[in-house]
Amino acid sequence: MRYFITFSYNGTDFHGSQTQPNGNTVQAEMEAAFATILREPVALTFAGRTDAGVHAEKMVAHFDWPQAQSANPSSHPSANLGRLRSLPANLVGRLNSLLPASIAVQAIQRVTDDAHARFDATSRTYHYRITTRKDPFTVQFRTRVGSILDFTAMNEASKALLGKQDFASFCRAHTDVKTTICDVREARWVKENEYEACFVITADRFLRNMVRAVVGTLFEVGKGKMTADEFAQVIAAKDRCKAGHSAPAEGLALIEITYPNNIIL
């Protein structure tokens, strides 16, 4: 049986979302909690990867449970069936009691056996939040910018992001991906108050480091160092060297992931 688990995390103290040899990750913490409660390893497949310091208000992963074969499988199929176990009814609460304060599980849902957290996602939305003032209560979640940015110019430039096109200019170099084409459906800056603003971007998929590279290049537009036409030329160049520096990690958060209704049971 396959399940989707929905959760959120503060990425400040993690070396990214997915397991790696050196450094603690969100996946490592969650799989350790599963193993403690279920007394059996559970492999999580995330909907996507976030870099060190990047947050998620909503992340989804899938896992399979129970396994059809026990540790000492019987040759009789009916005996194996009898060994199947259902998930504990209070699994969400038990996971939250073991996980660090920086990770919170919201729900676990049964899905079709072929549902895939990554490949079945129809859209993803990220927010990149900035502030012009020093604030100890938002320092982990907003990037402080020292310049007054021209949001009208940045929104004009953001229009060039819309549609299905090649975003190689905003892809981390030497990344092993089959295609750098994405379908961006929304890209705009929203002023939240006198000091704070948020960049909202939605697409069917994102490349490694794509949003931070986009935001870093839009900062150049906002500072008057690049025009909207020049920003469009950066996209057309399909060359990471033509784009600006990646914006810092702390302002970025994965906000939403959508799926077809027919995979949820």
Structural notes for this entry:
By secondary structure, the chain is an alpha+beta fold. The chain folds into two domains: 2-120, Pseudouridine synthase I, catalytic domain, N-terminal subdomain (Alpha-Beta Plaits, 2-Layer Sandwich); 123-256, Alpha-Beta Plaits. The protein has six helices and ten strands; from the N terminus they run βαββααβββαβββααβ. Helix 1 (26-38) packs across helix 3, helix 4 (151-158) packs across helix 5 (210-222) and helix 4 runs parallel beside helix 6. The protein is globular and about 60 Å long.
Overall strand count: 10
What is the CATH superfamily label of the largest domain? Pseudouridine synthase I, catalytic domain, C-terminal subdomain
Number of self-contained structural domains: 2
Helix content: 10-25%
CATH names the topology of the largest domain as Alpha-Beta Plaits
Strand % is 25-35%
What is the number of helical segments per DSSP (H or I, 4+ residues)? 6
What letter string, H or E per element, gives the SSE order? EHEEHHEEEHEEEHHE
Low-confidence stretches: 68-83
Q: For the residues shown, what is the average pLDDT?
A: 92
